[in-house]
Write the structure tokens for this entry.
Amino acid sequence: MISLRRTLAVAVSTFLIAGLVLPAHADPDAVAQAKADLERIQQQSSAIDQEIIEASERAAQGRTKLSEVTVDLEQQESMVAQMSTDLGEIAIVQLQSGGFDITAQLLTSDSESSFLSGLATIQNEANRSNAALQLLQVAQAEVDTLRAEADRTNVTLQADLEAKEELALEFEAKEAEAEAVHDRLSAQERERLRQIEIQRQREQEEADRLARVAAEQVRIAAEQAAALEADTASESSDGSDRPSGPSNTAPVEKPATSTAGNSSRAQSAISAATSKVGSSYVWGTSGPSTFDCSGLMSYAYAQVGISLPRSSRAQFSMGTNVAKSDLQPGDLVFYYSPVSHVAMYIGDGKIVDAANPRSGVRITSVNSMPYSGARRVG
């Protein structure tokens, strides 16, 4: 009896002690709301990030254009100044000749030939002056055009710079909002949120697997139908009396095609991207130590001599379209609609991407975000 009581006492004590550290119940409503909020914020942040990149690109192009226009303007202004000086010298020649008025020299000429020669000289100088004046007017008009272009370029540049600054503040506000969502969750609710996301990804992976199986079955059925049709046509042409029905001959295997998955350049790009796992996410950067999503893709493929645009939206127009069931390592994978995030498929249902300031460069599931499409550039 004493032994039994001791056993019960130990059990009750253990239960009470465990009860002190049992995790608090995760509020399902709070978890569901946090999940919805974080998904919304992530999509909005990705869209803002791409707008920042595009504004930065426009600003960079504007600076280059302004620099080029400024050089052209300075050269044109210098040319106009020289033409003005030359035109002034022509006018002096027209008015003076050896200290005497040209007209007076003509009136006092002692022969008709001298008079005609002088008259021809005046006409030549007048023609030269008029031609020079016309050239000066054209050159001055070009100066005015270049000045106007420089002004317009500068206005656009300043607008893009201001837009970039405003978008940066908006991006930071979204990240602060995401932090606030995390902060309001208990540790148990955060864990529940993580488990929900894991389960969602597993369900999506299973759906993808079933889709691949169905696609393969369709392909096999199509090949068998084609083989049967070929056999039927052959029987009709040679008059043989072979029984009809599905051929027992195995389908001819299609020759392997070149894909990003067996491309050495694609594998090298994967190595470049995965080597940056753990690096910080900073919008508008493309390495070598900090990245945004499209910056990481640009950096990785630049290492193998492939130039990609800087925004995910522009990268979505590169290469060839790839079905999700045909993804190969090295393919670019895009998320959200409209597209605002890009990652690189590395095989086994995984991607590498520069996610956000909280996660940095990471490896995660291809189904971690709403899938939009894929392109092959390797």
Observations:
- Confidence is low (pLDDT under 50) at residues 1-23, 245-262.
- The chain has eight helices and eight strands.
